[in-house]
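INFO batch 0412 | record 1 of 1 | parsing
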Amino acid sequence: MATQAKQQGIVRVHQEDHVITIQVLGWGNMNQSMPVRKLAEQMLAGGGATLRVDLRHCTYIDSTFLGTLLHMRRLSHRDNCELVLVSPSAQCCRILQQMGVEECLPSVVAEELEESAWTELPSEADSVETFNRNVIEAHRELANLDSDAGKSMRSVAQCLSKDDPPS
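INFO prediction complete | emitting tokens
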């Protein structure tokens, strides 16, 4: 059961003023992507926010979650906000490097917030259409990377997008 929870991952949130911190425990995957994306979009829409994604306890990031982080980065730039990864684990650093995104997703090392500071981010049941669209959009973000990984993701994004018009 503990292994399954680690693989499914848990996402927690802490907000203080205009700074929101999202922490991933275990796996950051497609199941957490839409709730994290919705929260980020809501926070960034207000402007002047700082979005921190704490990955110190994250052991794996799938392509959809990584593409969601890139989507959040694009939104943060558009809205003059800041997105930063906090203390990414060695496993996450390796994935970020392999995908060629360590330069475009800045990271900092910071102390961890107290356990009582966190609230678990509920995962809402999305429609199949919303879930699929998020997966496609995340892979389009990856396909836009100017790296070997971006090149290989272009065919994945094209395959996923066959029946879905570009957004």
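INFO post-check: Residues 99 and 149 are 5 Å apart (CA to CA).
INFO record closed
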